[in-house]
Specification:
338 residues, Serine Threonine Protein Phosphatase 5, Tetratricopeptide repeat, 2 domains, two-stranded antiparallel sheet, Sel1-like, Localization factor PodJL
C-alpha cells in the first residue's frame, strides 16, 4: 500500500470511483481559489491509498492498513496577488458603538476612524487588518475579531474568512471550531477558495458526531478548492483518492490531483504522483497523464477572493486594487498551511 504523506490544508474533493474514473467536478458550491477557469481533471480510477474521508470511506477508513490522514492546515496566507480590482466591502450598521473601542487610535488615523464609525466598510476592513497585524498601532486581536465580525455579518467573504481563522486559532477570542466552520462555510459558499480549503481541513482533522472525521465533507470541499487551483487542496484530494477515504479509492484520480499540485511547484506532490504512477497499469498511467495535462483551473471571482487595501489621500478613503498582507502571524499545523 502506498505510504502517503500528511494531508495539506485547503479545500474540496469527494467522489468515489473504481479504477479509471475521472475526477468528478466539485459540487457547485462556490468558486474561490487561485488560478483561472478550470475543470477538474478527469481521472480513471485505479486503486491507491488516499488520505481520509468519511463517506464511503467509513468502512475503508477503518481498515488497519490505512492510517488516518493528517491535514496540513488552515490558510492564513493570501494566494497570488490579485490582478483585478477587489470588491468593495459593504457598508456596516451600528458602528457608532465602537467609538470607545477605537478611542485609543493614533491621531494620524483619525480620518480612517471616522469613516469606520460612519459605517464605511472599507475603513472598517482596514482598521480590522491594522488591529490584527499591529500595523501602525498596538496589535489587538480581540478588536480585530469584533470588526471582522461586523463585516462578516454583512456578508463580506474576506471578513468571514478572517473571522473563521481567528475562531479556528483562538486568536483574540475563545477557540471555537463550530464558529470557524460557520464562517469559513459562509465564505466558501460564496466562492472563497481559502475558506473552502480551511473548512475541509477542519472536517478532515476533527471527529464528527460519530467520533470519526467527516472525510466525505472534507473531500467535497477539498475538491472545490482543488478545482479552483488551491495547491494544497489538490494534494489532499490526491491523498483521499489514494486512501479511499470519503471517496472511492481511485489511483488514476489520485495521480491527476498530485500532478496538478506538482505543476504548481509542490515537490512532495510530485513524489506522490510518481509513487501512484508506479502502481498503475500502462493504460491507466497514460489515461492519468492525459487527464492531468487537460486539467484547467476554474476561474475565481476577485470580488470574493481579493481583499482590498485602502489609503487616505486628501482626506478621502480610496480603494486600491491590491490584496492586503496576511493579518495573522499564525504558524500552520502540518506541512502546508494556507
Amino acid at each position: 500500500m502506498l505510504a502517503l504523506g500528511a494531508l495539506q490544508a485547503l479545500t474540496m474533493g469527494s467522489g468515489d470511483a473504481p479504477p479509471q474514473t475521472p475526477p468528478a467536478a466539485a459540487p457547485s458550491r462556490a468558486e474561490p481559489g487561485r488560478p483561472p477557469e478550470a475543470t477538474a481533471p478527469s481521472v480513471t480510477p485505479a486503486k491507491p491509498e488516499t488520505k481520509g474521508q468519511a463517506d464511503k470511506g467509513a468502512a475503508e477508513a477503518s481498515k488497519p492498513s490505512i492510517p488516518d490522514p493528517q491535514t496540513t492546515q488552515a490558510i492564513p496566507a493570501d494566494p497570488a496577488p490579485a490582478r483585478q480590482r477587489a470588491g468593495t466591502p459593504p457598508r456596516v450598521t451600528g458602528m457608532a458603538g465602537f467609538a470607545g473601542d477605537l478611542g485609543g487610535l493614533p491621531a494620524d488615523l483619525a480620518k480612517l476612524k471616522q469613516h469606520a464609525l460612519d459605517g464605511d466598510g472599507l475603513a472598517v476592513w482596514e482598521l480590522a487588518m491594522r488591529e490584527a497585524e499591529g500595523r501602525g498601532l498596538n496589535r489587538d486581536l480581540a478588536l480585530s475579531a469584533k470588526l471582522f465580525e461586523k463585516l462578516a455579518a454583512a456578508g463580506y467573504a474576506p471578513a468571514q474568512y478572517k473571522l473563521g481563522g481567528q475562531y479556528e486559532k483562538g486568536a483574540g477570542l475563545v477557540r471555537d471550531l463550530a464558529q470557524a466552520k460557520l464562517w469559513y462555510g459562509r465564505a466558501a459558499e460564496q466562492g472563497h477558495a481559502r475558506s473552502m480549503h480551511n473548512l475541509a481541513v477542519i472536517y478532515a482533522e476533527n471527529p464528527a458526531a460519530g467520533g470519526k472525521p467527516d472525510y466525505a465533507s472534507a473531500a467535497s470541499w477539498f475538491r472545490q478548492g482543488a478545482e479552483h487551483g488551491v495547491r494544497d487542496s489538490q494534494y489532499n484530494l490526491g491523498v483521499l483518492y489514494a486512501k479511499g477515504l470519503g471517496v472511492g479509492q481511485d489511483l488514476v484520480q489520485s495521480y491527476g490531483w498530485f500532478a496538478a499540485a506538482a505543476a504548481q511547484g509542490d515537490d512532495d506532490a510530485g513524489k506522490k504522483r510518481d509513487e501512484v504512477g508506479a502502481k498503475l497499469s500502462p493504460t491507466d498511467l497514460a489515461n492519468a497523464k492525459s487527464i492531468a495535462t487537460a486539467f484547467k483551473v476554474r476561474k475565481l471571482d476577485p470580488a470574493v477572493n481579493d481583499a482590498p487595501v485602502i489609503a487616505e489621500a486628501a482626506g478621502a478613503v480610496t480603494l486600491l486594487g491590491a490584496p492586503t498582507p496576511n493579518p495573522y502571524a499564525f504558524t500552520p499545523v502540518g506541512r502546508k498551511g494556507v
